[in-house]
Amino acid sequence: MTHTLLSFGHGYSARELTKHLLPQGWRVIGTTRTSEKAGELAASGVEPLIWPDSDMSAAIEAADHILISAGPDGDGDPTLNLLRDQITRKSSNLKWAGYLSTTGVYGNFDGAWVDEMTPLNPTTKRGQLRKAAEEDWSSVAGLPLHIFRLAGIYGPGRGPFAKVRSGTARRVIKEGQVFSRIHVEDIAQILWASIQRPNPGTAYNMCDDDPAPPQDVIAHAATLLAMPVPPATAFEDAEFTPMARSFYAENKKVRNDRIKTELGVELIHPTYREGLQSLLDQMA
């Protein structure tokens, strides 16, 4: 049987998942906003739809799996705002639905551990919008929904090496601050594992095994490049964009036990050390 994935906001993580699906004979339909990106999707084997300009009826009817990567805005979730009725009518015929959220929904825990059973208490606007979107998608009757809470994403084209090489990398020191992160290849393998073992109503944290201070990651990247470790800058003295500063407003360590025990996932990049080495090897 040929399966069809309809991917709303077919971006970085969804493209990596496609590498698992296409070799298995899947049909993948991905939405994007520009003709340029539509051409890139077509070249990779994905059927592009420029949305919200396109009629989604045929794609929704064809899909037996859906993935939602498009984020919410101040008006709520854009996919549900426009397509709730169509998705609701289709929901009972879907085998799997995945929503990509963020670990920001947990809020601040001053460096303590959180897991999927931790009450959600986001303190940033971005986290609050994601929590509302999770609730909105969970309210769609009959939808076989799986929620994936992603830590900071890195991978090819998204890593610290370019900044280290250009001399713009900063080792910002904020006492006790840690961040969880996840390599895009592990995001894809977790999604693929869930598709093969659906368990609607479940949330999964997507992160590696080592929540680490950001300055350690920068220092390790410089060491791998055999370049000087960038000097340290106190958090109080560092200049940030409002979004960058908001990341430092919350501090927690995120557990990932559920992806291992329920989905049988063995991380390809269990810490940033393996992940950065892999990126460096690919660049070479």
What can you see in these coordinates?
The protein is of the alpha/beta class and 284 residues long. The chain has a domain at 4-153 and 182-208 and 255-269: Rossmann fold (3-Layer(aba) Sandwich), CATH 3.40.50.720. 37% of the residues lie in helices and 18% in strands.
Features:
13 strands, 7-stranded parallel beta sheet, 284 residues, two-stranded parallel sheet, Rossmann fold
Oligomer: single chain
Mean pLDDT: 96
Beta fraction: 15-25%
Low-confidence stretches: none
User: What's the count of strands?
Assistant: 13
Q: Within the largest sheet, what's the order of strands?
A: 3-2-1-4-5-7-11
Query: Termini separation (Å)?
Result: 40 Å
CATH architecture of the domain at 4-153 and 182-208 and 255-269: 3-Layer(aba) Sandwich
Secondary-structure element string: EHEHEHEHEEHEEHEEHEHEHEHH
Specify the helix fraction band: 25-40%
CATH fold-type name of the domain at 4-153 and 182-208 and 255-269: Rossmann fold
- Molecular shape: globular
**Using only CA atoms, what is the Rg?**
19 Å
Specify the structural class: alpha/beta
Largest sheet: 7 strands, parallel
Give the topology:
Elements: E1 4-8, H1 12-21, E2 27-32, H2 35-43, E3 47-50, H3 57-62, E4 65-68, H4 78-90, E5 96-102, E6 113-114, H5 125-138, E7 145-150, E8 152-154, H6 161-166, E9 171-173, E10 181-183, H7 184-196, E11 203-206, H8 214-224, E12 232-234, H9 242-247, E13 253-254, H10 257-261, H11 272-283
Parallel strand pairs: 1-2, 1-4, 2-3, 4-5, 5-7, 6-13, 7-11, 8-10, 9-12
Helix pairs in contact: 1-7, 8-11
